[in-house]
Amino acid sequence: MPAQILDGKMIAQQMRAKLRPARDALGPRAIRLVSVEVGQNPASAVYVRNQQRAAAEVGIAMEVRNLPVSTTEADLVANLQELNHRPEVAGILVQRPLPPGIDPRIVQSAIDPQKDVEGMHPANMGAILYREPLLPPCTAAAAQHLILATGIDLRGAETVVVGHSEIVGKPIAVLLLHRLSTVTVCHIGTKQLNDHTRRADILVVAVGKAGLVHGDMIKPGACVIDVGINQGADGKIVGDVDFASVAAVAGYLTPVPGGVGPVTVAMLLRNTLRAAGAHV
Ligand code: NAP
Prior knowledge:
The chain is of the alpha/beta class. The chain contains 10 helices and 11 strands.
C-alpha cells in the first residue's frame, strides 16, 4: 500500500489555529519577531514572505531588517544587541546563508538566548541534552512533531537520522533519543548507508542531496521524514528522498515542498509566543 503522505501544510495550519488563542491571551501588547538578513537572497525572500504571512495569521508582527551585503560581523552583532534590548521584540532570527566572513556561531551566540526563537544559541542547543528546552531548534522540533502526528510509539523504535549538522541532524537525534527510540546517526563517514536505513522504523533524512534515499533503502511501512530542500535542474524544489519509489514502500512520508518546511515555520511562531511568555 502506498505511504500515507504527512501533509505539513495542514499540520502547520492546525498548529497556527492553536497558537492564535495563546497569542490573544497575551493581551493587546505587540509581539514582535525580527528577521535580520544580510544581503539579498531570492530564495530566502520567498521564505521570509511565508514566515510573515504565517506570523500575521497568529497575531505576531514580523519586522524584516535587510542589512547591506557590506555589513561586517561586528555590525551584525551590534544590530542583534540593539534588538536584544528592545522590550517589544520577543524573538530574533537571522536568515541564512550569511555572507563569507561572518561566522554563524558568533552571530547566533550574540542573540539573547531568551529571544533565540530558532533555538540555535549554544545555551538552547546545550539544554536539549537535559530535556526538550523551552526554545528547541525549529526544524528538529518540526520533524519530531510530524513523527508524533503518526501515532507511532517511539519507545524502542529503530530510528535512523541521516545527516549530523548542528542545527538539524544532531538535535533531531537527541529529541528522538529522549523519547527512548534507539537512534543511529549516519553521516559522510557511514560505510553502508542502506544497511542502516533498511532497519529504520523511523527514518529522518537531513542532508541536502536530491535522490540520496531510494525505495530500496526503506523498511516496508517505515515513517520517512524528508528534511532536505534541493533545487532541481528544472528549478523545482525536491527533498533528499526519491518521492515516488519511497512512497511505494514507506508507511508514512513527508512531501517536499509541503512537509517539514511549513511545520518548521509554525515551530518558529510557537517559540516566539513562548519567548513572549505564552504557555504553548
Ligand atoms: P548541512 O549543514 O550541510 O549538513 C548536511 C549533513 O549531511 C552533514 O552532517 C553531512 O555530513 C551529511 N552528509 C553529507 N553527505 C552525506 C551522505 N552522502 N550520506 C550521509 N550523510 C551525508 O545541512 P543542514 O543545515 O543540516 O540541512 C540539511 C538539509 O535540510 C538541507 O537540504 C537544508 O536545505 C534542509 N533544511 C530544511 C529545513 C526545513 O525547514 N525543511 C530547515 C533546515 C534545513 P558531514 O558533516 O560529515 O559532511
